[in-house]
Automatic annotation (TrEMBL):
Alphabetized Gene3D superfamilies for the sequence: 1.10.1760.20
Species annotation: Pedococcus sp. KACC 23699
Descriptive protein name: Energy-coupling factor ABC transporter permease
Membrane topology per record: Multi-pass membrane protein
GO biological processes: transition metal ion transport
Transmembrane segments: 7-28, 40-60, 72-97, 103-125, 137-164, 170-203
Entry superkingdom: Bacteria
């Protein structure tokens, strides 16, 4: 998913950089409401985990490979605003120190993975969570579905950006079919990894999982109501 330099023209790259900068500014403000003394260290661990897993590529087909995007996973664990910041830091380090993703394409990569990947994953997670029984265990399948959907959606958004400002004359349908098809398979792996990571924390410390807080709050309210009665 990392977009290298030269795939998109200058106006499109500048446009995504502006979008990314605005999103990071909003995330800096929003993260203050998501983090506290207990969960702040988890944000650093999430960024480290995403960084490490993005370095591991798994083969798909015809010589292509994919890696974890981590947007949905980060959003469920530490909240979407904090997740946007965590993914941004990961992408910044990768671009500057490891030449993974272009410098001029940094805004594009943040837009695709730190904004689309995070917020689509979070939105789908909340939708699925609303439909499932209100139990902490249900955070895991909801997170998996969010991860599954977020990856091909981010790939489709790249196809849209390439149609707007791509430097090669390739039909939109060709790019979209290839990108979404490959990343739909990657999304399955993302869903499995996300489910395993979220489950490991939900089973031991659900109070640290941002996506589980509404369920825990409702449970606490129910217990207090029962005690009062």
């Amino acid at each position: 998913m990392h977009v290298p330099d030269g795939f998109l023209d200058a106006p499109t790259s500048v446009g995504t950089a502006v979008v990314a900068a605005a999103a990071v500014g909003l995330a800096l403000r929003g993260a203050r409401r998501e983090l506290d003394d207990r969960t702040a260290p988890l944000a650093g661990l999430v960024a480290l985990f995403v960084f490490a897993t993005q370095m591991l590529n798994f083969p798909i087909a015809a010589g292509t490979s994919g890696h974890l995007l981590g947007g949905a996973l980060a959003a469920v664990l530490v909240g979407p605003f904090t997740a946007t910041l965590a993914i941004t830091v990961v992408l910044l380090v990768q671009a500057l120190l490891m030449a993974d993703g272009g410098i001029t394409a940094l805004g594009t990569n943040i837009t695709l993975m730190g904004i689309v990947g995070v917020w689509v994953g979070w939105g789908v997670f909340k939708l699925v969570q609303a439909l499932l029984p209100k139990r902490t265990a249900m955070v895991v399948p909801a997170a998996a579905v969010g991860a599954l959907v977020s990856v091909p959606v981010a790939a489709f958004m790249f196809s849209v950006l390439f149609a707007v400002g791509g430097t090669a004359d390739v039909p939109f349908a060709t790019v979209a079919t290839a990108m979404v098809g490959v990343h739909a398979v990657i999304g399955i792996g993302e869903a499995v990894i996300t489910a395993l990571a979220v489950a490991s924390i939900v089973l031991t410390r659900p109070d640290l999982v941002y996506g589980a807080k509404p369920v825990l709050a409702k449970r606490e309210l129910t217990i207090r109501s029962a005690v009062t009665a």
